[in-house]
Amino acid sequence: MLEVRKREALDKAYKIAKFLKEKYNVSKVVLYGSLAREFDFWEFSDIDIFIDGWDDDRFNYWTMFLEIENIARPYKVSIVTQRDTTEALLKEIEKEGREIG
């Protein structure tokens, strides 16, 4: 059952990446966190996504986030931009993340 849930979450992540590239012209979408790691995904894992190359307009961010939440359902999603992140998280994303779009 967990393997099915992980496959579904990965499918949602790729759909989100495609959506972000097509609608918001982001240059890079990186999956990180438990879904990106081979053995850490569990029942309550969310979809962690880092986006780069996007015009970071706060109003559009919330519009975009609501659209992404709809795609991700029933999974929770976390979206981080270059502006939102810390050096420590950026290093983690560079180390374990995988580009999906």
Automatic annotation (TrEMBL):
Superkingdom in the source lineage: Bacteria
InterPro entries: NT_sf, Polbeta
SUPFAM superfamilies per UniProt: Nucleotidyltransferase
Annotated ranges, domain Polymerase beta nucleotidyltransferase: 15-100
Coiled-coil spans in chain: none
Descriptive protein name: DNA polymerase subunit beta
Taxonomic source organism: Caldanaerobacter subterraneus
Lineage: Bacteria, Bacillati, Bacillota, Clostridia, Thermoanaerobacterales
